[in-house]
Amino acid sequence: MMRTALAMTAAFLVALTIPSSMLAQDPVRREAVQFAAGTTGTRIKANVAGRETVLYTLAAEAGQRMQISLSSGNTATYFNVYEPGRGLGDEALAGGNLTGPYMPDINRFDGVLPTSGTYTISVYLYRNAARRGEAAEYTLDISIEGDRAEVVKGDFADGLQGGPDYWRVRAGQGLKLRADPSTGAAVLMTLPDGIEVRNLGCRTAEARRWCRVATLADPGVEGWAAGDFLVEGTGQAATRLPEMGPVRAGEADALVPGTGFNATGQVECYAGPGAEPQMCDFGVIREGNGTGTVSVTLPGGPTRVIVYDGGMPTSFIASQADANAAFKASKVADGYMVSVGSASFVIPDAVIYGG
């Protein structure tokens, strides 16, 4: 009994020496900041309470000027700024409760950034207010301005101008390839989930990372894709099987007699989610190098015309009746599973390339 009592007393004394932060972890809320297309800043209105910390992440490049200001009716509300690779528990680049090189005034950051990468802004209540469980509404204004240098200085590990040779797309509904690094730029095509592309280097715009990529088809399509949806690839995922011998652009491909198609046949298809597999008639018009259209007709149903670019299904030609139908393409073993509205089609690569 004496030993048990001593053990319980010792455990109690040890518990008293453990910091409260180790007994119950303070809540953290995380949000990614993205500017609207064509803009260089944003305004965030939110709230923080008690021991909570709100973390905002945004991408920027060395040499750009970042400005941040925070206003709140609760004067115990502050923010810290952390360089890429640092965060809570690390030394901050600047703290909103002090003035210094980057802080011309309390809760106002203004400085040229030293490193390229993802910066973190933490908003919190000062200790005494946090202990009392106070709450605060605040407004956070953020802007990033200045031309990007031709060569990124202080490049970061997961890749501005560095990074892997190849990316793999991780976006269930496909990833838009755009003409410029902006959500407002023209869409060149949609990259299907799982496809691999060549990495031509990444930059930041609108507070997010954008990567210039090229499809692996010959010739490839180049454009900008949001880096949030790219993971390291291997470069071994071919966009066509090597034995297919595709028709090259400008070469003639004979038509099936009595049709306007270069080839006809059947592919596996599904009328809707959970439906039994059927065989659907198709006809393909090949423009060379995996580009063209594939028309697939459901038994007794509508015809869907699927547009291919560089070996990848990128969109469909919508009639007035199905203009709002969703389009999706996912890589399968030797082709793509293409969905238009509720219907799905399994289209081998050989259909568009020939073989």
From TrEMBL:
Gene3D superfamilies from the xrefs? 2.60.120.380, SH3 Domains
Keyword Magnesium carried by entry: no
Annotated protein name in UniProt: SH3 domain-containing protein
The membrane spanning regions, by residue number, are none
Q: Which InterPro entries match?
A: SH3-like_bac-type (IPR003646)
First and last residue of the signal peptide: 1-24
Residue ranges of every copy of the SH3b domain listed in the record: 174-230
User: What keywords appear on the UniProt entry?
Assistant: Signal
> One Pfam match, by short name?
SH3_3
